[in-house]
Amino acid sequence: MKICVVGAGAIGGLVGGKLALAGEEVTLVDLGAHLQAIQKHGLKLIHPDHSETTVKNLKATDNLREPGPQDLVILALKTQHIAGVAHGLRALYGPDTVLVPLQNGLPWWYFQRHGGEFEGRRMEACDPTGVISENIPAERILGCVVYPAGEVAAPGVVQHVEGDRLPLGELDGRPSERALRVSDAFVKAGFKAPILDNIRAEIWLKLWGNLSFNPISALTQSTLLDLCQFPLTRELAAEMMREAQRIAGKLGIEFRVPLEKRIAGAEKVGKHKTSTLQDVEHGRALELDTLIGAVIELGQLTQVPTPHIDAVFALAKLLDHTLQAERSRLHLERVA
Hints:
Layout: E1 2-6, H1 10-21, E2 25-29, H2 32-41, E3 43-46, E4 52-55, E5 59-61, E6 70-75, H3 82-85, E7 93-101, H4 131-135, E8 142-144, E9 149-154, E10 157-162, E11 168-170, H5 177-188, H6 199-220, H7 224-229, H8 231-250, H9 259-269, H10 275-282, H11 289-302, H12 307-325
Parallel strand pairs: 1-2, 1-6, 2-5, 3-10, 6-7
Antiparallel strand pairs: 3-4, 8-11, 9-10
Helix pairs in contact: 6-8, 6-10, 6-12
Protein backbone atom coordinates (compact mmCIF):
# COMPACT_ATOMS: atom_id res chain seq x y z
CA MET A 1 0.00 0.00 0.00
CA LYS A 2 0.92 3.61 -0.47
CA ILE A 3 0.92 5.01 3.07
CA CYS A 4 1.50 8.51 4.42
CA VAL A 5 2.14 8.98 8.14
CA VAL A 6 1.40 12.54 9.24
CA GLY A 7 3.42 13.10 12.40
CA ALA A 8 6.51 10.89 12.74
CA GLY A 9 6.97 11.20 16.49
CA ALA A 10 7.00 8.35 18.99
CA ILE A 11 3.96 6.48 17.64
CA GLY A 12 3.87 7.73 14.05
CA GLY A 13 7.57 7.04 13.64
CA LEU A 14 7.24 3.56 15.15
CA VAL A 15 4.24 2.57 13.03
CA GLY A 16 5.57 4.15 9.84
CA GLY A 17 9.03 2.68 10.31
CA LYS A 18 7.75 -0.84 10.89
CA LEU A 19 5.35 -0.61 7.93
CA ALA A 20 8.30 0.42 5.73
CA LEU A 21 10.35 -2.50 7.03
CA ALA A 22 7.44 -4.77 6.06
CA GLY A 23 7.67 -3.53 2.47
CA GLU A 24 4.98 -0.86 2.32
CA GLU A 25 5.59 2.39 0.40
CA VAL A 26 5.78 4.87 3.29
CA THR A 27 6.13 8.65 3.39
CA LEU A 28 6.60 10.42 6.73
CA VAL A 29 5.49 14.03 7.20
CA ASP A 30 7.13 15.95 10.01
CA LEU A 31 9.07 19.13 10.82
CA GLY A 32 12.34 20.45 12.21
CA ALA A 33 15.40 18.59 13.42
CA HIS A 34 13.59 15.26 13.61
CA LEU A 35 12.63 15.45 9.93
CA GLN A 36 16.11 16.59 8.91
CA ALA A 37 17.72 13.68 10.75
CA ILE A 38 15.37 11.19 9.06
CA GLN A 39 16.07 12.69 5.64
CA LYS A 40 19.81 12.52 6.21
CA HIS A 41 20.28 9.24 8.07
CA GLY A 42 16.96 7.36 7.92
CA LEU A 43 14.73 6.60 10.90
CA LYS A 44 16.39 4.66 13.72
CA LEU A 45 14.10 2.39 15.74
CA ILE A 46 15.22 1.19 19.17
CA HIS A 47 13.27 -1.95 20.01
CA PRO A 48 12.12 -3.05 23.48
CA ASP A 49 15.07 -5.50 23.67
CA HIS A 50 17.39 -2.51 22.97
CA SER A 51 18.36 -3.76 19.52
CA GLU A 52 18.35 -1.13 16.78
CA THR A 53 17.18 -0.94 13.18
CA THR A 54 17.69 1.96 10.79
CA VAL A 55 14.88 2.31 8.26
CA LYS A 56 16.01 3.90 5.01
CA ASN A 57 13.42 2.68 2.51
CA LEU A 58 11.00 5.51 3.23
CA LYS A 59 10.47 9.11 2.18
CA ALA A 60 10.25 12.09 4.50
CA THR A 61 8.94 15.59 3.84
CA ASP A 62 7.40 18.65 5.51
CA ASN A 63 4.99 19.22 2.60
CA LEU A 64 1.57 17.55 2.66
CA ARG A 65 1.18 18.15 -1.07
CA GLU A 66 4.31 16.21 -1.99
CA PRO A 67 3.19 12.59 -1.38
CA GLY A 68 0.03 12.80 -3.52
CA PRO A 69 -3.08 10.61 -3.08
CA GLN A 70 -2.58 7.67 -0.73
CA ASP A 71 -4.22 4.33 -0.03
CA LEU A 72 -3.85 4.91 3.72
CA VAL A 73 -3.23 8.05 5.76
CA ILE A 74 -2.10 7.51 9.34
CA LEU A 75 -2.73 10.64 11.37
CA ALA A 76 -0.34 10.50 14.31
CA LEU A 77 -0.40 14.10 15.53
CA LYS A 78 -1.68 15.08 18.94
CA THR A 79 -5.26 16.28 18.57
CA GLN A 80 -4.45 19.92 19.33
CA HIS A 81 -2.27 20.01 16.20
CA ILE A 82 -4.75 18.40 13.78
CA ALA A 83 -6.76 21.55 13.05
CA GLY A 84 -3.62 23.18 11.67
CA VAL A 85 -3.14 20.48 9.02
CA ALA A 86 -6.77 19.41 8.48
CA HIS A 87 -7.28 21.25 5.20
CA GLY A 88 -3.89 20.12 3.90
CA LEU A 89 -4.87 16.48 4.39
CA ARG A 90 -7.17 16.82 1.38
CA ALA A 91 -4.11 16.61 -0.88
CA LEU A 92 -3.59 13.03 0.34
CA TYR A 93 -7.11 11.83 -0.49
CA GLY A 94 -7.86 9.62 -3.44
CA PRO A 95 -11.27 8.07 -4.18
CA ASP A 96 -10.81 5.25 -1.63
CA THR A 97 -8.26 6.68 0.82
CA VAL A 98 -8.68 5.39 4.37
CA LEU A 99 -7.62 7.57 7.30
CA VAL A 100 -6.56 5.96 10.59
CA PRO A 101 -6.23 8.44 13.49
CA LEU A 102 -3.69 7.49 16.17
CA GLN A 103 -4.57 9.76 19.09
CA ASN A 104 -5.06 9.33 22.80
CA GLY A 105 -8.34 10.23 24.45
CA LEU A 106 -11.82 10.61 23.07
CA PRO A 107 -11.77 11.38 19.33
CA TRP A 108 -13.47 14.26 17.54
CA TRP A 109 -15.43 11.68 15.55
CA TYR A 110 -16.92 9.91 18.61
CA PHE A 111 -20.56 10.52 17.66
CA GLN A 112 -20.09 10.26 13.90
CA ARG A 113 -21.75 7.12 12.48
CA HIS A 114 -22.64 6.41 16.11
CA GLY A 115 -26.40 6.01 15.98
CA GLY A 116 -28.73 6.84 18.82
CA GLU A 117 -29.54 10.04 20.64
CA PHE A 118 -26.30 11.90 19.97
CA GLU A 119 -25.67 10.85 16.36
CA GLY A 120 -23.47 13.36 14.53
CA ARG A 121 -22.83 15.58 17.57
CA ARG A 122 -19.45 17.33 17.42
CA MET A 123 -17.09 16.87 20.35
CA GLU A 124 -16.29 20.51 21.12
CA ALA A 125 -13.38 19.71 23.42
CA CYS A 126 -11.63 17.99 20.52
CA ASP A 127 -12.83 20.08 17.56
CA PRO A 128 -14.03 23.45 18.88
CA THR A 129 -14.23 25.18 15.49
CA GLY A 130 -15.42 22.19 13.45
CA VAL A 131 -12.45 22.45 11.05
CA ILE A 132 -11.35 18.86 11.71
CA SER A 133 -14.77 17.34 11.02
CA GLU A 134 -15.14 19.55 7.95
CA ASN A 135 -11.91 18.32 6.37
CA ILE A 136 -11.85 14.68 7.49
CA PRO A 137 -15.06 13.01 6.27
CA ALA A 138 -16.38 10.38 8.66
CA GLU A 139 -16.65 7.82 5.85
CA ARG A 140 -12.85 7.86 5.43
CA ILE A 141 -12.13 7.11 9.10
CA LEU A 142 -11.17 3.70 10.42
CA GLY A 143 -10.99 3.84 14.21
CA CYS A 144 -7.88 2.67 16.04
CA VAL A 145 -6.67 2.43 19.64
CA VAL A 146 -2.95 2.92 20.32
CA TYR A 147 -1.39 0.66 22.95
CA PRO A 148 2.34 0.86 22.07
CA ALA A 149 4.37 3.25 24.22
CA GLY A 150 7.44 5.04 22.94
CA GLU A 151 9.36 8.28 22.83
CA VAL A 152 11.56 10.27 20.50
CA ALA A 153 14.97 9.59 22.09
CA ALA A 154 16.80 12.02 19.79
CA PRO A 155 16.16 13.61 16.39
CA GLY A 156 15.59 10.77 13.96
CA VAL A 157 15.49 8.17 16.75
CA VAL A 158 12.29 6.55 18.06
CA GLN A 159 12.42 4.22 21.06
CA HIS A 160 9.71 1.57 21.34
CA VAL A 161 9.20 1.03 25.07
CA GLU A 162 6.52 -1.65 25.05
CA GLY A 163 3.21 -2.75 23.55
CA ASP A 164 2.19 -3.90 20.08
CA ARG A 165 -1.63 -3.76 19.94
CA LEU A 166 -3.42 -1.52 17.42
CA PRO A 167 -7.06 -2.65 17.45
CA LEU A 168 -9.13 -1.36 14.52
CA GLY A 169 -12.81 -0.89 13.87
CA GLU A 170 -15.28 0.83 11.57
CA LEU A 171 -17.19 3.67 13.25
CA ASP A 172 -20.52 1.90 12.68
CA GLY A 173 -19.15 -1.46 13.83
CA ARG A 174 -19.70 -3.25 10.54
CA PRO A 175 -17.08 -5.56 8.99
CA SER A 176 -15.31 -4.21 5.90
CA GLU A 177 -12.71 -5.20 3.35
CA ARG A 178 -10.68 -2.05 4.00
CA ALA A 179 -10.42 -2.86 7.69
CA LEU A 180 -9.07 -6.29 6.73
CA ARG A 181 -6.48 -4.71 4.40
CA VAL A 182 -5.23 -2.28 7.04
CA SER A 183 -5.19 -4.99 9.71
CA ASP A 184 -3.19 -7.26 7.41
CA ALA A 185 -0.62 -4.51 6.78
CA PHE A 186 -0.28 -3.82 10.51
CA VAL A 187 0.11 -7.53 11.29
CA LYS A 188 2.82 -7.93 8.65
CA ALA A 189 4.60 -4.99 10.29
CA GLY A 190 4.65 -6.81 13.63
CA PHE A 191 1.59 -5.40 15.37
CA LYS A 192 -1.50 -7.12 16.73
CA ALA A 193 -4.43 -5.51 14.93
CA PRO A 194 -7.72 -7.26 15.71
CA ILE A 195 -10.85 -5.84 14.09
CA LEU A 196 -13.45 -4.95 16.71
CA ASP A 197 -17.20 -4.44 16.33
CA ASN A 198 -17.20 -1.73 19.03
CA ILE A 199 -14.09 0.41 18.71
CA ARG A 200 -15.52 2.99 21.13
CA ALA A 201 -15.52 0.50 24.00
CA GLU A 202 -11.81 -0.11 23.38
CA ILE A 203 -11.18 3.65 23.22
CA TRP A 204 -12.79 4.03 26.64
CA LEU A 205 -10.69 1.20 28.06
CA LYS A 206 -7.46 2.92 26.98
CA LEU A 207 -8.74 6.36 27.99
CA TRP A 208 -9.77 5.01 31.39
CA GLY A 209 -6.15 5.00 32.46
CA ASN A 210 -4.88 7.90 30.35
CA LEU A 211 -7.33 10.43 31.77
CA SER A 212 -5.94 9.81 35.26
CA PHE A 213 -2.38 8.52 34.90
CA ASN A 214 -1.26 11.12 32.34
CA PRO A 215 -2.16 14.34 34.18
CA ILE A 216 -1.20 12.96 37.60
CA SER A 217 2.19 11.89 36.27
CA ALA A 218 2.72 15.33 34.71
CA LEU A 219 1.71 17.19 37.87
CA THR A 220 3.84 15.02 40.16
CA GLN A 221 6.76 14.30 37.79
CA SER A 222 6.21 10.60 38.45
CA THR A 223 6.33 7.45 36.36
CA LEU A 224 3.47 4.98 36.05
CA LEU A 225 5.07 2.71 38.63
CA ASP A 226 5.55 5.54 41.10
CA LEU A 227 2.02 6.92 40.96
CA CYS A 228 0.42 3.46 41.05
CA GLN A 229 2.44 2.41 44.10
CA PHE A 230 1.86 5.63 46.07
CA PRO A 231 -1.45 5.07 47.92
CA LEU A 232 -2.80 8.62 47.64
CA THR A 233 -2.27 9.00 43.90
CA ARG A 234 -3.41 5.44 43.26
CA GLU A 235 -6.72 6.24 44.98
CA LEU A 236 -7.03 9.58 43.17
CA ALA A 237 -6.60 7.79 39.85
CA ALA A 238 -9.20 5.23 40.91
CA GLU A 239 -11.74 7.97 41.82
CA MET A 240 -11.26 9.65 38.44
CA MET A 241 -11.73 6.29 36.75
CA ARG A 242 -14.93 5.61 38.69
CA GLU A 243 -16.38 8.92 37.50
CA ALA A 244 -15.44 8.10 33.90
CA GLN A 245 -16.95 4.63 34.22
CA ARG A 246 -20.30 6.13 35.24
CA ILE A 247 -20.24 8.40 32.16
CA ALA A 248 -19.35 5.53 29.86
CA GLY A 249 -22.16 3.46 31.34
CA LYS A 250 -24.67 6.19 30.46
CA LEU A 251 -23.42 5.90 26.85
CA GLY A 252 -23.85 2.12 26.77
CA ILE A 253 -20.19 1.23 27.29
CA GLU A 254 -19.19 -1.68 29.52
CA PHE A 255 -15.57 -2.20 30.53
CA ARG A 256 -14.24 -5.71 29.93
CA VAL A 257 -11.48 -5.21 32.53
CA PRO A 258 -12.05 -4.47 36.26
CA LEU A 259 -10.75 -1.15 37.57
CA GLU A 260 -8.03 -2.61 39.76
CA LYS A 261 -6.78 -4.78 36.90
CA ARG A 262 -6.52 -1.68 34.69
CA ILE A 263 -4.43 0.07 37.34
CA ALA A 264 -2.31 -3.04 37.81
CA GLY A 265 -1.66 -3.11 34.07
CA ALA A 266 -0.28 0.43 34.21
CA GLU A 267 1.82 -0.45 37.23
CA LYS A 268 3.27 -3.40 35.34
CA VAL A 269 4.61 -1.08 32.63
CA GLY A 270 7.11 0.11 35.23
CA LYS A 271 9.06 3.36 35.36
CA HIS A 272 7.64 4.66 32.08
CA LYS A 273 7.01 8.37 31.66
CA THR A 274 3.58 9.05 30.20
CA SER A 275 3.40 11.10 27.01
CA THR A 276 2.04 14.04 29.02
CA LEU A 277 5.00 13.95 31.40
CA GLN A 278 7.35 13.78 28.40
CA ASP A 279 5.63 16.87 27.00
CA VAL A 280 6.11 18.75 30.28
CA GLU A 281 9.80 17.86 30.28
CA HIS A 282 10.21 19.12 26.72
CA GLY A 283 8.05 22.23 27.08
CA ARG A 284 5.45 21.04 24.59
CA ALA A 285 1.74 21.89 24.73
CA LEU A 286 -0.15 19.30 26.75
CA GLU A 287 -2.79 17.00 25.27
CA LEU A 288 -5.45 17.67 27.90
CA ASP A 289 -8.69 18.49 26.09
CA THR A 290 -9.15 15.08 24.46
CA LEU A 291 -7.83 13.16 27.47
CA ILE A 292 -9.81 14.98 30.15
CA GLY A 293 -11.82 17.91 28.80
CA ALA A 294 -13.80 15.63 26.50
CA VAL A 295 -14.68 13.37 29.42
CA ILE A 296 -15.95 16.40 31.36
CA GLU A 297 -17.98 17.39 28.27
CA LEU A 298 -19.60 13.96 28.18
CA GLY A 299 -20.17 14.12 31.94
CA GLN A 300 -22.17 17.31 31.43
CA LEU A 301 -24.00 15.74 28.48
CA THR A 302 -24.99 12.69 30.55
CA GLN A 303 -25.45 14.62 33.82
CA VAL A 304 -22.72 12.72 35.68
CA PRO A 305 -20.72 14.79 38.24
CA THR A 306 -16.93 14.67 37.81
CA PRO A 307 -15.40 16.48 40.82
CA HIS A 308 -12.08 14.59 40.87
CA ILE A 309 -11.63 14.84 37.10
CA ASP A 310 -12.53 18.55 37.21
CA ALA A 311 -9.93 19.29 39.89
CA VAL A 312 -7.08 17.48 38.16
CA PHE A 313 -8.03 19.06 34.83
CA ALA A 314 -7.88 22.56 36.37
CA LEU A 315 -4.42 21.92 37.83
CA ALA A 316 -3.06 20.39 34.63
CA LYS A 317 -4.46 23.25 32.51
CA LEU A 318 -2.75 25.80 34.75
CA LEU A 319 0.52 23.89 34.46
CA ASP A 320 0.17 23.89 30.67
CA HIS A 321 -0.68 27.61 30.64
CA THR A 322 2.33 28.44 32.81
CA LEU A 323 4.76 26.39 30.75
CA GLN A 324 3.57 27.94 27.50
CA ALA A 325 3.41 31.50 28.86
CA GLU A 326 6.93 31.22 30.29
CA ARG A 327 8.20 29.27 27.27
CA SER A 328 9.68 26.81 29.73
CA ARG A 329 9.86 23.16 30.64
CA LEU A 330 9.88 21.24 33.89
CA HIS A 331 12.29 18.43 34.68
CA LEU A 332 13.44 16.93 37.97
CA GLU A 333 17.18 17.18 38.59
CA ARG A 334 18.96 15.07 41.16
CA VAL A 335 20.62 17.02 43.97
CA ALA A 336 23.84 15.97 45.67
